[in-house]
Design brief:
about 425 residues, single chain, six-stranded mixed sheet, alpha+beta
């Protein structure tokens, strides 16, 4: 989270954790109440899950006016004390997102305002889940699980999606059962995963990395949410059900599989959290607890609706090919504005991450800030290169070499920083941002 490349989520990957209201002025009294709720969630854990406390330093930020309300001051004097809290404005070169980030000499756990609203028990649990998720991101490097955001492009393919959906269904069945039935469902889930990894070389490593990153954050949020054991299982099963209906998995699947794997490991290996890292992920540890016996995955798949899932995914694959042709024409073959990454921060919506084969990942919601300025994509298309070297958008009519200031395209705005302008790019017809 503190590296040159900072990737932050615009919203939670779970619809049930998306912000409950429209962004607007932050109610400082309510913010203070929510700060107390976050610390209460951390206190419920008391450092037991990961060996160190989750109790970080919180800040709320609202995206429209970019105002922030923090529970303490910063060391650079950017915030002003306002009663019992500190207030200020997030600079434009920073993203307003759910993340852990250093600003003004403080490592903040930043949460987009407003969090899920309401005073009932489930609303409080959803808030605590969100707070716990982001507080975990603030400590993950200290516990040996640094952030990683691999693109997982194979999860756009029909075969990989089929076996991921079946794995999710098997994990759901495991959470709902006990004894021999649980063992059977866990073995099925692991069998489906093994087949997916066999068919897509490299998938095991990239999936493992995202499950250690967002999966363990999501698991931690549920564990400190204040729900009882049955409530935690119900919530994890909700997230798995969302997985079965999701359009894209590449950057979001771990939000669902992570909690399920974690809760199942809680009942199988008491020391599993201390054994993560070093090349291992939660699914690897679950295999140790439940060695998979030699039963064909195709045969077991029928119990989870393999035929219907495979047919649905093959239909989606046909639609995807047409979509990829459109994206390739706009972002790979046609003229583009390509903006290089230097001191970059990315703000993404993981639900809309769509791999464009090996070229990178396309987003329809994205905010990129760098030395050259700010790119804000809302309903457009932007391609983040697979090696995180640049972002490109279709070149609009009227954009010419020498253009500076504010530029607009279909679903995006580009605000070039002072001293920067567009110049000829690497290919004929392309443009890039350079210092004048």
């Amino acid at each position: 989270m503190r590296s040159t490349l900072l990737i932050a989520t615009t919203i939670s990957a779970s619809p049930l954790l998306a912000q409950a209201g429209q962004a607007g002025p932050i109610d400082t009294a309510l913010a203070r109440e929510y700060f107390q709720e976050a610390h209460a969630a951390a206190a419920r854990d008391g450092g037991r899950l990961w060996g160190i406390p989750l109790d970080g330093t919180l800040m709320f930020a609202e995206p429209k006016g970019r105002t922030v309300v923090a529970e303490r001051g910063d060391t650079a004097g950017l915030l002003t004390r306002t009663g019992a809290v500190w207030t200020g404005t997030m600079p434009t070169n920073r993203n307003v997102a759910n993340t852990a980030q250093e600003w003004g000499g403080v490592l903040w756990t930043t949460v987009v305002w407003p969090p899920p609203a309401g005073s009932d028990a489930e609303a409080r649990a959803l808030r605590a889940e969100l707070f716990g998720h982001e507080l975990w991101h603030a400590i993950q490097e200290r516990i040996g699980l640094p952030g990683a955001d691999p693109p997982n492009p194979h999860l756009e393919r029909a075969d990989a999606r089929t076996w991921l959906r079946l794995e999710g269904r098997a994990l759901n069945a495991a959470l709902a059962s006990t004894g021999a039935a649980r063992r059977q469902a866990i073995e099925d889930a692991l069998r489906f995963r093994a087949l997916r990894h066999e068919r897509f070389p490299g998938a095991a490593e990239s999936e493992r990395a995202l499950e250690r990153h967002e999966g363990m954050a999501s698991y931690t949020g549920i564990r400190v949410s204040g729900r009882d054991s049955a409530g935690m299982i119900d919530r994890a099963r909700q997230k798995l059900a969302e997985l079965d209906a999701a359009e894209h998995y590449a950057r979001s699947f771990a939000y669902a599989t992570g909690p399920a794997l974690g809760l199942l490991l809680d009942g199988a290996l008491s020391d599993w959290r201390t054994r993560l890292g070093g090349g291992k992920g939660p699914a690897d540890l679950l295999v140790e607890a439940y060695p998979v016996r030699g039963v064909d995955a195709e045969r077991r798949g029928d119990a989870y609706g393999l035929g219907a899932v495979r047919a649905a995914e093959q239909e989606r694959e046909a639609r995807r090919e047409a979509r990829l042709a459109q994206l390739s024409a706009a972002l790979l073959e046609g003229p583009v504005i390509e903006l290089p990454f230097g001191q970059v921060q990315l703000q993404i919506d993981p639900n809309g991450a769509e791999p464009l084969r090996e070229a990178g990942t396309v987003y329809v919601t994205l905010r990129v800030s760098d030395r050259w300025g700010v790119l804000d994509v809302k309903g457009g298309t932007a391609l983040v290169a697979g090696n995180f070297s640049s972002v490109r958008i279709p070149r609009p009519e009227g954009a010419q070499a020498g253009s500076s200031g504010l530029l607009r395209g279909d679903g995006w705005t580009l605000t070039l920083a002072e001293g920067y302008a567009l110049s000829a790019g690497a290919r004929a017809g392309d443009l890039t941002a350079v210092r004048r």
